[in-house]
Design a protein that fits this description.
Number of helices: 3
Shape: globular
Distance between the termini: 44 Å
Number of strands: 6
Order of helices and strands: EEEEHEEHH
Strand order of the largest sheet: 4-3-2-1-5-6
Structural class: alpha+beta
Helix content: 25-40%
Strand content: 25-35%
Length: about 150
């Protein structure tokens, strides 16, 4: 495939239960990887890998481009700290952006930042991307309902 497209999101921290994180990446060929690691109550790492359709990739691109995140800059965003790190990397054609900031607990954290408009775009885009990925994971893997 000639289209150069890639998305990776990571959020995590190192604390009482070790390195806990959620990460996913989606490539232009449709390969999506997901990992969720938590050692709380001796949980094990969850890893999923699926192939998604070109239509799903086009929808992902639409979500990203409609958010206009490619125009943003993270230089005024809070630095990663002991609370945690969030990273978002997007490659689309010749454009390549990479954002890094601390974990955002709520919109109050966004409003109190030095760049509330840019961080708000990031915050909502991340919410949309996580919903999109979780939906794809649920569609591909039957989750056993709680009885």
């Amino acid at each position: 495939m000639t289209d150069n497209f890639y998305v990776r999101y990571y959020v995590g921290h190192k604390g009482k239960f070790g390195h806990e994180f959620l990460e996913f990446e989606i490539k232009a060929d449709g390969k999506m990887r997901y990992a969720n690691n938590s050692n709380y109550k001796n949980e094990i790492m969850i890893r999923k890998e699926v192939n998604i359709s070109q239509g799903a990739i086009e929808e992902l691109k639409r979500i990203i481009f409609d958010a206009e995140i490619m125009k943003e800059d993270d230089k005024l965003w809070p630095e990663p700290d002991r609370i945690g790190t969030q990273e978002l990397e997007i490659v689309s054609g010749q454009d390549h952006i990479s954002f890094s900031t601390t974990k955002i607990g709520s919109l109050l954290d966004v409003q109190e930042s030095k760049d509330p408009d840019g961080l708000r775009i990031f915050y909502y885009l991340v919410q949309d991307l996580k919903c999109f990925v979780f939906s794809l994971i649920r569609l591909h893997f039957k989750i056993k309902p709680i009885s």
